[in-house]
Amino acid sequence: MSRTVIDLDDEALEAAAAELGTTTKRDTINTALREVTARYRRLRALDEARELVADGALDMDLLLDKSTYRP
């Protein structure tokens, strides 16, 4: 863990804390960083899945067919 002194937008920090349900600046910032990272990873995975579907390498109908989940 590193320690950094930065100027923060207090209104943005307060809004983020309200959305994230955090109570301290540290928790708000760390949670926001994790959320942003996770969001962009999901977006990249979605883009990759779309490319697979477009290339015919992934059959969405088969994946969405719930009858194939369990016999």
Low-confidence stretches: none
Fraction in beta strands: under 5%
**What is the rounded Rg?**
20 Å
What is the terminal separation in angstroms?
48 Å
Number of strands: 0
Order of helices and strands: HHH
Count, helices: 3
Protein name: Type II toxin-antitoxin system VapB family antitoxin
What key attributes describe this structure?
elongated, 71 residues, 3 helices, Type II toxin-antitoxin system VapB family antitoxin, VapB_antitoxin
Description:
The chain has 71 residues and is mostly helical. 65% of the residues lie in helices and 0% in strands. It has 3 helices and no strands. It is elongated. The relative contact order is 0.07. This is Type II toxin-antitoxin system VapB family antitoxin. It holds the Pfam family VapB_antitoxin.
SSE blueprint and pairings:
Blueprint: H1 10-20, H2 25-54, H3 60-64
Helix pairs in contact: 1-2
Pfam family, one: VapB_antitoxin
Protein name: Type II toxin-antitoxin system VapB family antitoxin
Organism: Streptomyces koelreuteriae
Task: Describe the structure concisely for a colleague.
The chain is mainly α and 71 residues long. The chain has helices spanning 10-20, 25-54, 60-64. The model has no long low-confidence stretch (mean pLDDT 93).
